[in-house]
């Protein structure tokens, strides 16, 4: 999309248009996608993204353990403790 290209890299936007079988055309442009500075993710968004990327690889229980460890990172006595999940 030319407009997306013109505003990149200041904005990492996206655009899509779809023509339906009934002839209708749908279009959407997102200038500030979720996670960008002007559209930050909430803690709930980050948790959802974490679990959706993690669970299929290491399972729910290990994801929960790792998630808890991530949230305790600042209080660890030694960074190597991070890997004990």
Protein described:
Helices cover 41% and strands 14% of the residues. The mean pLDDT is 92. With 85 residues, the chain is of the alpha+beta class. The protein is elongated, with a radius of gyration of 19 Å. It has a two-stranded antiparallel ribbon with strand order 1-2. The chain has helices at residues 2-7, 43-58, 60-72, and strands at residues 14-19, 25-30.
Task: Give a concise summary.
With 85 residues, the chain is of the alpha+beta class.
What is the β-strand count? Answer: 2
Largest sheet: 2 strands, antiparallel
Separation of termini? Answer: 44 Å
Range of helix content:
40-55%
Strand order of the largest sheet: 1-2
* Strand portion: 5-15%
- Rg for CA atoms: 19 Å
Structural class: alpha+beta
List keywords for this structure.
85 residues; alpha+beta; 2 strands; single chain; 3 helices; elongated; two-stranded antiparallel ribbon
Task: Write the topology of this structure.
Layout: H1 2-7, E1 14-19, E2 25-30, H2 43-58, H3 60-72
Antiparallel strand pairs: 1-2
């Amino acid at each position: 999309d030319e407009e997306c290209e013109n505003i990149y890299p200041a904005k990492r936007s996206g655009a899509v248009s779809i023509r339906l079988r009934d002839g209708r055309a749908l279009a959407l442009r997102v200038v500030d996608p979720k996670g960008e500075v002007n559209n930050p993710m909430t803690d709930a968004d980050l948790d959802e993204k974490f679990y959706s990327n993690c669970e299929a690889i290491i399972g729910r229980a290990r994801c929960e353990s790792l998630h808890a460890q991530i949230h305790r990172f600042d209080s660890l006595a030694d960074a190597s403790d991070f890997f004990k999940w």
